[in-house]
């Protein structure tokens, strides 16, 4: 007996579904192929159009030409402080780097011997003054009285001599009486002259008085010398400033002329820099500059060119230049390193190009610009050369793109310029 078998048809999947499923099963290989194709397309575009280059624009602006140099802070002069006597240091009253004021005590030297010399000198002065006072109050009045007495005796002797002379002439007097009267008259006259000399010598202008005053003057001079030497035992600051060097300690035996301390006077500050001799022609006295200390790079202060050395350092091919700082900031220190920008020329509203885009600026300057998608050479003429920019006298116009040296682009190369 035959059985009828009925066949049932199973529906087949859609072709698109089967294709998508196949891709999904091979998704990673497919993704890799797609990336390769994209990269190849980009590489081809880069090859045909060239790399992207960020260009700078020529523009108009104000330009200041400067000479840049490094130097150090220095006072116009330094004061070396030394002892004026030989002695042993008793104490040092200041430290290196300390701010001092005029008249402030710095170093004390042992002064017991000097003090004794002052006492002796004071005694000699007192003695000389007593001698002058004695002449005025005792010797001179006594000499005046002695002169008066001598003059009175002379009048008496003259009167006696007149009587004796008349008696002798009339025959009533004796020769012996006349001789005694004559002798007494001569003695009286001598006593008067002696008294007059005594009065003169004890009067102002007389020898005794002059001698006494001379001795007093000498005693006073010796006292002043002793007091001055005693004052030398304390070394003081000659003016305001900062002690930048200290070469003395307690117990040191000091001698005249040997510097113990070095003082940088306050107020006057200057910057000393070495300028390359090739920039010498740009410098002139009175030019303004902006400076900054390396320790405080964000703080700037003004200076004025005040000195240009007339000679060139042959070893360094440089010229020493000094700039005066009229209003120095408080943070400046002696010998501090600073950088200065000296403004040597200035022009406003000129065509300027970034210095980073200029080739061979010192000899035959040119830039790379773009024409028809390729880098081309453009010869230019430069004027002032400032910080980061050059003045263009000929060859470029504002708004034109220029290619920086760091882009590594060569003339004739295809590029795609991007302007920031």
Could you walk me through the main structural features you see in this protein, from its secondary elements to its overall organization?
This protein has 420 residues and is α+β, with helices and mostly antiparallel strands. It is built from five helices and 22 strands. A six-stranded antiparallel barrel has the order 3-12-15-14-13-16. Strands 4-11-9-6 form a four-stranded antiparallel β-sheet, with no helix packed on it. Helix 3 runs antiparallel to helix 4 and helix 3 runs antiparallel to helix 5. The longest helix has 59 residues, at 112-170.
Strand order of the largest sheet: 3-12-15-14-13-16
* First-to-last CA distance: 94 Å
Sequence stretches where pLDDT stays below 50 over 5 or more residues? 1-10
Topology as H/E string? HHEEEEEEEHHHEEEEEEEEEEEEEEE
Overall radius of gyration: 54 Å
Task: Give the biggest beta sheet.
Answer: 6 strands, antiparallel, barrel
What is the strand tally?
22
SS-derived structural category = alpha+beta
Average pLDDT score? 84
The portion of residues assigned to helices is: 25-40%
Secondary structure layout:
Layout: H1 15-25, H2 27-49, E1 52-54, E2 56-57, E3 59-74, E4 79-82, E5 87-92, E6 99-100, E7 105-109, H3 112-170, H4 175-202, H5 207-232, E8 234-236, E9 241-246, E10 253-254, E11 259-265, E12 269-276, E13 288-293, E14 300-308, E15 318-325, E16 337-354, E17 366-371, E18 374-379, E19 381-385, E20 389-394, E21 401-402, E22 416-418
Parallel strand pairs: 1-22
Antiparallel strand pairs: 2-21, 3-12, 3-16, 4-11, 5-7, 5-10, 6-9, 7-8, 9-11, 12-15, 13-14, 13-16, 14-15, 16-20, 17-18, 19-20
Helix pairs in contact: 3-4, 3-5
